[in-house]
Amino acid sequence: MLYLIWSVFNILFFLTWAYLAICFLTGKHSIFKKSFSIGYIILIIGIISLISGKSKESTNSSTPSNKPVNIEIIKIEESTLNNLYLTLIRDKETDSILHDLSSSTLTGFISGLKWTHMGISENNGNLTLLGTISWKLLGWTIYTQNKEVMIKESTV
């Protein structure tokens, strides 16, 4: 539910910024009559976030191995808005997890959220997925939340 509220807030904030930018560019400065109004602040924040662009995306620098592997795609968390998927790649011979090649993604309605895969650990047949969720507003990170998801052996 909190993800929905954050996503709607992101969309409303963007629409407010777009309205203010259009009013400013078309010459309808009546909403900007008060000196240093909140409209200017929102407009400046939006312009700065557009100029700064997207942050650098981390790329997977590992090279695929020529070893035979087993690939599993596991749906970990399911909600009405988004899903968390784990792509688990194991060495066929040793059945060990290839951490450099495994990944996880957050899909669905994720406006203002960014999932970053940190790693996978395995204890007694149970997997633990580690990652962070970044809460963003107009491209700026407002809060970063560490997330640890336990995956039971029956799911794998």
How would you describe the overall organization of this protein?
Keywords: Membrane, Transmembrane, Transmembrane helix. The chain crosses the membrane at residues 6-25, 37-53. The protein is α+β, with helices and mostly antiparallel strands. It folds into 2 domains: 2-52, no CATH class; 69-151. Helices cover 26% and strands 39% of the residues. It is built from 2 helices and 6 strands; from the N terminus they run ααββββββ. The protein has helices at 2-26, 38-52; strands at 69-78, 82-91, 103-108, 113-123, 126-137, 140-151. Strands 1-2-3 form a 3-stranded antiparallel β-sheet, with no helix packed on it. It has a 3-stranded antiparallel β-sheet with strand order 4-5-6, covered by helices on one side. α1 packs across α2 (38-52). The protein starts with a helix and ends in a 5-residue tail after the last strand.
Strand content range: 35-45%
Count up the domains. 2
Radius of gyration: 21 Å
Largest sheet, strands/sense/barrel? 3 strands, antiparallel
- Low-pLDDT runs of 5+ residues are none
Q: Count every beta strand, where a strand is a DSSP E run of 2 or more residues.
A: 6
- The largest beta-sheet arranges its strands as 1-2-3
Class from helix and strand fractions: alpha+beta
The 3D shape can be described as elongated
**Residue share in helix:** 25-40%
Order of helices and strands: HHEEEEEE
Assembly status: single chain
End-to-end Cα distance, whole Å, is: 27 Å
Mean pLDDT, as a whole number? 78
